[in-house]
Amino acid sequence: MWCCCLTCIVLYKCGSEVTMGRSSKDKRDIYYRLAKEEGWRARSAFKLLQLDLEFNLFTGVSRAVDLCAAPGSWSQVLSRKLRGQEGKGDAGEEVKIVAVDLQAMAPLPGVTQIQGDITKVSTAQEIIRHFEGQPADLVVCDGAPDVTGLHDVDEYIQAQLLLAALNITTHVLKPGGTFVAKIFRGKDVTLLYSQLKIFFSGVTCAKPRSSRNSSIEAFVVCQNYSPPDGYVPNMSNPLLDHSYDVDFNQLEGPNRVIVPFLACGDLSAFDSDRTYPLELNADKPYQYTPPTQPPIRPPYQQACHLRKNNLLSREDAPSNQSQEEADPPDESSSKEQSEQCV
Ligand SMILES: C[S@@+](CC[C@H](N)C(=O)[O-])C[C@H]1O[C@@H](n2cnc3c(N)ncnc32)[C@H](O)[C@@H]1O
User: Does the annotation mark 182 as catalytic?
Assistant: First the structure.
């Protein structure tokens, strides 16, 4: 999800507090800061890079799908790894990367974008069309819903995103291919593991160092796509809900699906739950770096605009005049909003 919090909105309000607010986030979140310094659109880039260090995800891969891709740091990783640093490696001509998200995303070299909902059949069909005849080698999904704070609901919606991604994967992935997806390790996670094990011979739950320990987020790395004999991909299965009943998740012994858990990386990597000093290196003084690519049309844009113009609490606001007409957001305000994200 876009990383944006009300604290930042307050800190960005007046000039003298701007530097403090910005550098304080740089201090609190080392991966946020490194992402800006290394030119990634989001700190999530490090999660995929760290998963790759453990699983060699990109070896032999030239065709990939990035589901739930905005603002696009995983697509950046795919573009750089598959096409080479300059965006045109030896295999540049054959590389195909398709990125999908509900949100609009700024363009990236060599990445075809689809704006749509991955749980909708029409979006799935559009993705599938890109890989007809030539299946993908890798499907990644970093999908996360807008969290409600109600853990059961959040976990359920996240699971539905994962299953939608799996369903699309069964249509586009080549046998032997790899599927990587964000997963919330909630109490019903066993059901998801068992569904994934139907399609992949290797399923590992991995936690990169850049994913906070305090978060239930992890990633399933599913290797060697091998659907059951005679399985015909269709649009409803495995989206079918099966039963999220208590009995299934309480199975014990050999009946319970337990997948290996891997903490990626060693203690030399930065700890995402720690606060680091701004001067990381005595030879290199700290300098604030702005975000690499501000998100375009983020979902919170209107809320920020209303807040900035003090329109949120006005009961007498004219109902027949749109907020845009009343005070169109200027460049600085949209920049201010977008700087809350990476
Ligand atoms: C954590 S962000 C992805 C970050 C991305 N991997 C990156 O590196 O920049 C989660 C994304 O999931 C997207 N998303 C949530 N539900 C979706 C859905 N049903 N269909 C498509 N995208 C969805 C959100 O719009 C959001 O951009």
Answer: yes
